[in-house]
Amino acid sequence: MKRDELLQLQQQLCAEAYTLMERKNHDYAGAGTDNPLANFEVVEALGITDTARGILTRMADKFMRMTNFTVSGKFEVQSESAADTTRDLINYAVIWYAFMKKSGRV
Prior knowledge:
Blueprint: H1 3-29, H2 38-45, H3 51-72, H4 82-102
Helix pairs in contact: 1-4, 2-3, 3-4
């Protein structure tokens, strides 16, 4: 892969991740809410963990999926691809950063 191909791939995946975040945030956080992180912050209200760790846990799930694919060469859930997992991880990284920014940590 050449540099320009890598940059085009990054642009494509991030554009797709953006569209996916728009749709999923509507479904998970609700269209009428002023808090797009509400579904992530609920872990604190439930006494499970703090929000940042909750987001990191979801990222860890994606890392495990990537690790298992790297080792086995296949996904058992055929409806989700390597690109899907990558877009999810991009979005979780943005969500983590948004939460950290909202809480004044960055």
